[in-house]
Amino acid sequence: MTRTERQKMAAGEWYCCIDPELDALRHQARLAAHAHNTAPPDPVIALSPALSTLFATHGDECFIEAPFRCAYGINITLGDRVYLNSGCTILDTAPVTIGSRSMLGPNVQIYCAQHHKDRELRAQGLERAFPVTLGEDVWIGGAAVILPGIRIGDGAIVGAGAVVTHDVAPGQIVTGPAAQARHLT
């Protein structure tokens, strides 16, 4: 039996992102993000109904500032009282889990897709997806970038502008352009 590109994506296998089913899911996510991003400022809505129904699951009292972008939304899980500041982008080609009481600064980017290194295969849309997990009580500074497959432990802090290329241990503080390079205590 032939597996769909969506099934391959979910299994972490190489898949083609240029696919009608995946296009339709990305369109659904764009519509939900647009509804969230264009909601009137009063009354204050912490999590728009469009995103609430799009996400895999979410806890209580989550707050997402506009604008917000995601690839699919269906792979995003938020714990209780998660806060995403304006401009956050989550490219959730794999599960993205953000633990309770975690906060992301403005313009934080979370990427799950790894594009093929062979240029011809990359041009055909081949990529694979790796989950990203943020524990509870994590703080991600503004404009940080979290790369595919990263796990950030409970209570960790990622400094503003960091590019997280390796896992971050619980309680650890990482900063710098390649966040594995400088660990502070």
Describe the secondary-structure layout.
Layout: H1 5-10, E1 15-16, H2 20-37, H3 49-54, E2 57-58, E3 63-64, E4 68-70, E5 76-78, E6 83-84, E7 88-91, E8 96-98, E9 103-104, E10 109-111, E11 113-115, H4 119-123, E12 126-129, E13 132-134, E14 139-140, E15 145-146, E16 151-152, E17 157-158, E18 163-164, E19 173-175, E20 182-184
Please describe what this structure looks like.
- The chain is α/β, with parallel strands linked by helices.
- The chain has a single domain (5-184), classed as UDP N-Acetylglucosamine Acyltransferase, domain 1, CATH 2.160.10.
- The protein contains four helices and 20 strands.
- It has a seven-stranded mixed β-sheet with strand order 3-6-9-14-17-19-20, with no helix packed on it.
- Strand 19 and strand 20 form a beta hairpin.
- The longest helix is centred in the first third of the chain and has 18 residues, at 20-37.
Give keywords.
single chain; about 180 residues; alpha/beta; UDP N-Acetylglucosamine Acyltransferase, domain 1; five-stranded parallel β-sheet; 4 helices; 20 strands
- The stretches of 5 or more residues where confidence is low (pLDDT under 50) are 181-185
The CATH topology name reads UDP N-Acetylglucosamine Acyltransferase, domain 1
Q: How many strands, which pairing sense, and closed or not: the largest β-sheet? A: 7 strands, mixed
The helix content is 10-25%
Q: How many individual helices? A: 4
CATH-derived architecture: 3 Solenoid
Mean pLDDT: 94
Strand elements, count: 20
Numbering strands along the chain, what is their spatial order in the largest sheet?
3-6-9-14-17-19-20
Overall geometry comes to: globular
Approximate strand percentage:
25-35%
- How far from one another are the termini? 52 Å
- How many domain units? 1
Oligomer: single chain
Please name the fourth-level CATH homologous superfamily: Hexapeptide repeat proteins
Going by helix content, strand content and strand pairing, the class is alpha/beta
Order of helices and strands: HEHHEEEEEEEEEEHEEEEEEEEE
Per CATH, the class reads Mainly Beta
- Overall radius of gyration: 16 Å
